[in-house]
Amino acid sequence: MGTDLFDTVRIIDTDTHVAEPYDLWTSRLSVKKWGNMVPHVEWVEEENSDVWFFGKTPLVSVGGSVMAGWREFPPKHPPHLEDAAPETYDPALRLKRMDADGIYAQVLYPNVQGFGTGRFLALDDPELMLACVRAYNDFLVDWSSADPNRYIPIAALPFWDLDETLKEMNRAAEIGHRGLTFSTGPEFYGSPHLTDPYWDPVWSEAQALDLSVNFHIGSGDRSGKDDPVDSMGLSAKFASSTVKFFMGNVKGVADVIHGGICHRFPNLKFVSVESGVGWIPYALEAMDWNWRNCGVMEEHPEYDLLPSEYFKRQMYGCFWHETTTLRYALDSLGADCILFETDFPHPTGMSPGPASYAEAPLDFLRANFSDLPAETLNKILHDNAAALYKVK
Q1: What HEC string does the chain produce?
Q2: In a domain, 203, yes or no
């Protein structure tokens, strides 16, 4: 029964990333007007790598986010995009890879500008920053046109400008985006705190447009990347920072619930992306305890649900490598708020290779979850995501 189901269910992968082509912005924006301020790639000898520059600021090595099948462990990576697996940047070849992996559809996130769009602030030019966001959103829709049924673009937002954010939300919805990225820590970039009523127009518009708000890890404070190398080693530092980013999404979940956002916008959906699900039952139990024990219900008598109930009504978590902790989450939360992801082609993703512990997605699912009820598997592998992202 399990094998037959895995052969037939249309698995939706709710967290993957598109490797941006070197000319994404230089081909869409006026280099004559902005010159080298336009995001572009330069070879950096000291890093032995192509590096993305936003203006004069070097931000991230091109190859660090395209590790699927690479021969070395991170933080080592392909020096050029052309050295990486072509399905990381070619939409037609990725569809073939998806077929081989048993994946029907993929939700698409960025690499270069950060998972909450904050890196564009390095440009320090509001007009250029907005143009970059719009160019990226246009690019992702164009990239997805290889198969609009199977590719699910998620829009970036110019969150530093509220009016332009609202305009871009509507434009993104019109051109085909099916969700929004947002930072769990906009205050880290000098904007109001996530719980500030300043953001209520964003939540209201997202609810009206029926677009989920997706909190990808690493979308706020990324200071963990500055952990010391000497006392840890490169690989240990990389692994430590990554795990801390996973756990960091508890901030967004707790802030959205305790800030009354779920209460005020009961039809708005939130997704905690690339952060797993095993921690969620404990976090919700702790939230429920403190909700009662710290007098939240007395302070906010209008809140009619407990944190765990708000989560189950409006939020989702995504799993990939988890086994025992997924079962724990299913027992505690049920199957209605859990999604599946592979994190392709990131270093922590489910991409087998000479420098990877990962199994192929179908092999992993079959080996660990064939005994789960068909209804449960259908929900977490397809149904929940299909409803959330409007997959046909």
Answers
A1: CHHHHHHHCCEEEEEEECCCCCCCCCCCCCHHHHHHHCCEEEEEHHHCEEEEEECCEEEEEHHHHCCCCCCCCCCCCCCCHHHCCHHHCCHHHHHHHHHHHCEEEEEEECCCCCCCCHHHHHHCCHHHHHHHHHHHHHHHHHHHCCCCCCEEECECCCCCCHHHHHHHHHHHHHHCCCEEECCCCHHHHCCCCCCCHHHHHHHHHHHHHCCEEEEECCCCCCHHHHCCCCCCCHHHHHHHHHHHHHHHCHHHHHHHHHCCHHHHCCCCCEEEECCCCCCHHHHHHHHHHHHHHCCHHHHCCCCCCCHHHHHHHHEEEEECCCCHHHHHHHHHHCCCCEEECCCECCCCCCCCCCCCCCCCHHHHHHHHHCCCCHHHHHHHHHHHHHHHHCCC
A2: yes
